[in-house]
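re: that chain from earlier
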Amino acid sequence: MNIHEYQAKELLAKYDIGVPTGYAAMSVEEAVAAAEKLPGPLYVVKAQIHAGGRGKGKFAELPAEAKGGVRLAHSIEDVRRDAGEMLGNTLVTIQTGDAGKQVNRLYVTDGVDIAKEYYLSMVVDRATDRVAMIVSTEGGMDIEEVAHHTPEKIATIGVDPATGFMPHHGRSVAHALKLEGALAKAAQKLAKQLYEAFVDLDCAMLEINPLVETKDGQLLVLDTKMSFDSNAEFRHHDYAELRDETEEDPAEIEASKYDLAYIKLDGNIGCMVNGAGLAMATMDIIKLNGAFPANFLDVGGGATTEKVTAAFKIILSDPAVEGILVNIFGGIMRCDTIAEGIVIAAKEVDLNVPLVVRLEGTNVQQGKDILANSGLPIIPADDLGDAAKKIVAEVKQAA
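^ sequence. v structure.
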């Protein structure tokens, strides 16, 4: 689950972490009112979307020379103009793809006199089972270029959850950022605060870019991205208030209601599989046969007929889907349950694309019988390789 910058900063402020004063705004009038609460004369108007690269982004509806999604405003009237140009328009960045994202929220903050920009982020490193603190002296909009061309400028510091954050971790952060004296001590304190926030909030990712040194010698979090581990949401019931469904794919929202793991992709062959590993293998073999998957969809190990029916409808709601491959290995999941769900959903939505089904495992014969007696044009497959070849051939023939 991702949240907006202003929401992340509100959470970090509770840990006494320094952030510029700012206010969220949903309209031009609210943006102007937010600026009037700030001392000025410099304001920053930021588009709030769940994507990075806002500063270098372009608005689809505005001229090419128009400013991006993060703007410096030198007067209240500048704030009014920038808010009017941003709200309701589509911001295209390197992370949104060509479709972009519509800007429905803004964040108006106080301007900051920046002396130096740094980078600091935290993620869970699955290879080491530790929280990885990633730091660099090269903060700012081009951190991706730094990672690509000069990776030696990026340091990674692992924190063992058994010991938690220790003083030497803070010293390592300060050293990696090449800070000395009071700033080094401030960096050590900030790193500890950020680690505590990361763990307490069950974050999946916390990125500070840039972390800035101000001209009066302070460290401030100028921009941040934060996401949470969805498996820990039961510990944080207040997270529901932070969710912005306008930033999410409607199909993914619908899938979450049925506890389905669904991610839309750019291909034309819909996939319904049980088990994440098997789903990945299914997508790989589709590509091996010259086509591309339209989605990742894992129905899990204990899906009901209702759940399978919902999954099938979600796949078919994507207009890009030209064929469907169902690949089920029945362990906990029973093949007859999958078959019943497929038949019910196909009849309800008036199936009009090729459907190939490969079933194996628990109650496989019962499942195959249900499909064979359904009266639907379902194409059976013997194994995964056979299924992929058949669905790709059917889609190409239909085209």
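The two ends are 37 Å apart (CA to CA).
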